Amino acid sequence: MSEPHSDIGRKRQRAIYVAGVGGQRPAAPVGQAELATAAQGAMSSEAWAYLAGGAGRESTMDANRAAFERWRIVPRVLRDVEQRDLSIELFGQRLPSPLLLCPVGVLGLVHREADLAVAKAAAALHVPYIFSNQASVPMETCAAAMGDSPRWFQLYWSRSNELVASFVRRAEACGCSAIVLTLDTTMLGWRPRDLDLGSLPFMSGQGIAQYTSDPVFRAELKENALGSTRSTPEIKPPLNLPTIVTALKQKANFPGGLFANLTASDPRAAVQRFMTTYSRPSLQWDDLKFLRQHTKLPIVLKGVLHPDDAKKAVELGIDGLIVSNHGGRQIDGEIASLDALPAVAEAVNGKIPVLLDSGVRGGADVFKALALGATAVCLGRPYVYGLAVAGQQGVEEVIGNVLAEFDLTVGLTGYANVGEITRAAIQITA
């Protein structure tokens, strides 16, 4: 059972100020610009490019923030907000707040404890964590560290339906309470920051822990080793020192570690297999029947931005939507998630929950998204920056700060619970 986030705003403020009397400062900067700067300083250039970058000119990332800035909060006064209830009901669970953690891949680039540190932080603050399909730590390990704290699983639809079914079975077995099917990454977007560095972490075996820990994937590796033909020719890099370093990284990132895999061919084969099976551009609405046949968990479609797609999802019995443009990482010039939210929420008309991610940086953003029709909101890059700066403690502080600002925004705007927040609480500026 999740604990309520009761008066978390004032409690968080008080804790920081009391610690300040003793000369202690937050481990992760509270200001968003300062947090990002500190995170960049703690990451390699390749890690920063992958996690902070976006598609093309990154205009979609800019649009996400501009959309939040256009909407301004209009407070009401002289209302009793001494007691505030931030809790929501979602898929039969009572959650202490409308905040979840987005799935973010390859967190091993950021911190040695990667997804595990995030899982522990999410459990400590009773915030649901959506496990990434591209994790650096297997879902079972993260789930074991979370106790009964809620978690979901993000699914990328592989070219292997057997692998898709296996991922879903594992998610159910480790206590995930929803499957989040990400639809906007059937191909990687054009990301200049990564391309300029010639850097894709999957090539060194990073971010594929869900695959290398999966029995179906491992079985498919063995089948390939017995002589199955390639569907596409392998592109071989030149043999030089960087290539050797990448090969060693592949072995280090494979289960068992570097020394156990020094003479093994599996690590390189796993990377090759992943690159050929990772995602499926031919995915269609009819394929969702397969997913429904293999899980009883709620199915949430992530990446829905058009109201007609939202209506289609409702017609097909989908359980929820996440309005998302993948944090601006997939399409340059795309509509901001917050701009798409009102039409999607109207199309759904309360029949299923609508969540939002992309561009969320603080508690005021959470408030605005709820006012525009979101049931809950997912936080992404800020908690990753906290992870880079201070590990699990940094993640906890970032989550705590967002929740504290949200709680204070709710109260200062004149509302006592989340259900009271409507579009009347905000107005758009030119």
Spell out the blueprint of helices and strands:
Layout: H1 8-21, H2 32-42, H3 45-52, H4 59-70, E1 71-73, E2 88-90, E3 93-95, E4 99-101, H5 114-124, E5 129-131, H6 139-144, E6 151-155, H7 161-173, E7 179-182, H8 192-197, H9 209-212, H10 215-225, H11 241-253, H12 266-277, H13 288-293, E8 299-302, H14 307-315, E9 320-323, H15 337-348, E10 354-356, H16 363-371, E11 376-379, H17 381-412, E12 426-428
Parallel strand pairs: 4-11, 5-6, 6-7, 7-8, 8-9, 9-10, 10-11
Antiparallel strand pairs: 1-12, 2-3
Helix pairs in contact: 1-17, 2-17, 5-17, 10-12, 11-12, 14-15, 16-17
Descriptive terms for the model:
alpha/beta; eight-stranded parallel beta sheet; 430 residues; 17 helices
Structure commentary:
With 430 residues, this protein is an alpha/beta fold. It is built from 17 helices and twelve strands. It has two domains: 334 residues, Aldolase class I (TIM Barrel), CATH 3.20.20; 75 residues, no CATH class. It is 44% helix and 10% strand. The strands form three sheets. Strands 4-11-10-9-8-7-6-5 form an eight-stranded parallel sheet. A two-stranded antiparallel ribbon has the order 1-12. It has a two-stranded antiparallel sheet with strand order 2-3. Helix 1 crosses helix 17, helix 10 packs across helix 12 and helix 14 runs parallel beside helix 15. The longest helix is centred in the last third of the chain and has 32 residues. The protein is globular, with a radius of gyration of 22 Å.
